[in-house]
Amino acid sequence: MATDPRIRVCLLGAFRILKDGLPVSVRAGGKVERLVGSLALHGREGVGRDELLGLVWPDRESELAGQSLNTLIYSLHRSLSDVLSGNPPVLHQAGRYRLNTEHGVAIDVAQFDIAVDAGDRLTRAGDRSGAIRAYRDAIDLYGGDLAVGSAIQHLLERERLRARFLSVFARLADVHFAEGDYDRTLSRALELLAYDPCREDAHRMAMRCYVRHGQRAQALRQYRICQQILAIEFDVAPEEATVELYRLVRQDPGRA
Q1: Distances 179 to 11, 147, 176, 182, 186 between C-alpha atoms, Å
Q2: Residue 89 phi, psi dihedral angles, 5° rounding
Q3: Beta strand 22-23 pairing with 7-10
Q4: Helices (H), 12-94
Q5: CA distance 53 to 40
C-alpha cells in the first residue's frame, strides 16, 4: 500500500481519526464524530451548511448551531493542521463543507473503493500479481462494516460496502485458482464463508479445491454443508450450478 496519509478518517469497523497513524482522542458518538463522519460519507461533493447543522445539532437553534459549527471546525484545525502544512482539515467552499482530501486527509471508505477498482482493472488487464496486491490492500482497509449513520442511505451504503468486501474474497480466490494456487484459493473461499455461509460460489470453489487436493470426500461434505445451511437459512435447495458440481465430484471428479 502507498504511504499512509497524514490524516485518515476511518468509518469502517469503528469511527477513528488517525494522525500520522496514531488515534486522535474523540468521544464516541460525540459532535466530532457526527461532523467528520458526515463529511467523510459525502466525500468531495461535501455537505451544505443547513444540512450539516441538522445532522450534527438537530435540536439546536440555527444561530447557536452555526456558532458551534465554527467552534468545532476551528478546534479541528488547531489539532490537525500541523501535519497538513498548515492547511485546514475542513474546507468551506460555495456554501458547502468537505474534508480537505487534496492536502493529506484520506477517508478509508474511498481508499477501499479505489483499491477494489484497481484490483478489478488489473484483473482485466491480466496482471494477476498486481490484482492480488490491490485486493489485499482492500481487505486490509476494511476494518468492519460502516460504523456511522443510521438513516436509510447509510444502511444502503453499509450493505454496498459489505457486499463489495465479500466480493473481494471471491475475486482473490478466482485469481489464485487461475494461477493453480489451490491452497490460497481454499483459504479465501473459507474466509468468505466465515463472513457469509450462504455464498454458493464460495462453497463451489472450496469443493473444486478439495478435488484438486485429492480430497473428494471433503468436497462432497462441503456440498452437504452448503445444502444444510441454505435449508436452515432460506428453506431452499442449492443452485443448479452447485448441484451439477456435486454430480461431477461424485461421478467424474476429473471434470469438476
Answers
A1: 34, 36, 5, 8, 13
A2: -70, -25
A3: unpaired
A4: 31-42, 49-56, 62-80
A5: 15
Task: Look at the block and give the residue holding cell 468545532.
Answer: 72
Instruction: Please tell me whether residues 30 and 16 are part of one structural domain.
Output: yes
Q: Answer whether 19's CB lies under 8 Å from 89's CB.
A: no
Nearest C-alpha neighbor of 92 from the set 70, 111, 60: 70
The Cα–Cα gap between 58 and 73 comes to 17
Its domain, for residue 18, covers 7-106
pLDDT, position 3: 61
For the segment 212-222, the average pLDDT, to the nearest whole number, is 97
Q: In the predicted model, is pLDDT for residue 2 greater than 70?
A: no
Q: What is the mean pLDDT of the chain?
A: 94
Give the β-pairing of 7-10 and 105-107. Answer: parallel
Report pLDDT digits (tens) over 185-205: 999 999 999 999 999 999 999
Domains in the chain, number: 2
In the structure grid, which three cell numbers stand for residue 103, read together? 492536502
Q: Are residues 139 and 25 located together in one domain of the fold?
A: no
Name the residue among 114, 118, 85, 116 with its Cα closest to residue 100: 85
Give the CA distances from residue 110 to residues 18, 44, 217, in Å, rounded to whole numbers and listed in that order: 15, 10, 43
Over range 153-182, report the average pLDDT: 95
Length of the chain: 256
For residue range 151-163, what is the model confidence (pLDDT) as tens digits? 888 899 999 999 9
